[in-house]
Amino acid sequence: MRLSDLTTRGATPFSLVPTADERKAIADALGIAGVKKLSFSGQLEPVGKSDWALDAVLGATVVQACVISLIPVTTRIDEGVNRRYMTDLPQVTTGEIEMPQDDTIDPLPAALDLAAVMIEALSLALPQYPKAEGATLGDAVFTEDGITPMSDDDAKPFAELASFRERFEKKEE
Asked: 60 is in which domain, residue-wise?
């Protein structure tokens, strides 16, 4: 959407619902198994003389591989998306800058790609470590034949001292 073409007298509603082929391309771009449903709807509203506010709702059903078993995990995402596009942002001239408190503020573009905003919001809302119900990570045991493998309890620094204490207390009884 070219922001200069929008009315400044009120909000401009929008709604995006990607096709099956577009959802497949989004899933491939995000490196996930699939996007079953995806919608992004809301409004762009003028703020002041030249700034804009985007208030929207992202709805999605995604499929990701379980981080433990690689079994497909389906997740429902319903999330609000708020962005502020402002003209008077300081220009970055060095490689090192301080991050602002408000991470919803972006520089005002000439044209706003709502599909890119939708994909970015979806990527940020995805579970980082999807886990299938009942999937557990078992103990990994690596040792040579005939040697007793070391357990997590054996690796604790005071485990041996505790066993000495127990033996000492038994001797006193």
From this structure: 3-125
Report the predicted TM-score, pTM, of the whole model to 2 decimal places: 0.73
SS (H, E, C) 78-125: EEEEEEEEECCCCCCCCCCCCCCCCCCEEECCCECCHHHHHHHHHHHH
Whether 44 is covered by a domain: the verdict is yes
Residue among 25, 39, 50, 46 nearest 76 (CA): 39
Whether residue 45 is contained in a domain is answered as yes
Mean pLDDT for each 10-residue chunk of the chain (173 residues)?
A: 81 95 97 96 91 94 94 95 85 65 79 94 95 82 78 69 77 70
Query: CA-to-CA distance for 136 and 108, rounded, in angstroms?
Result: 46
* Domains held by the chain: number: 1
Structure tokens at 56: 């929207």
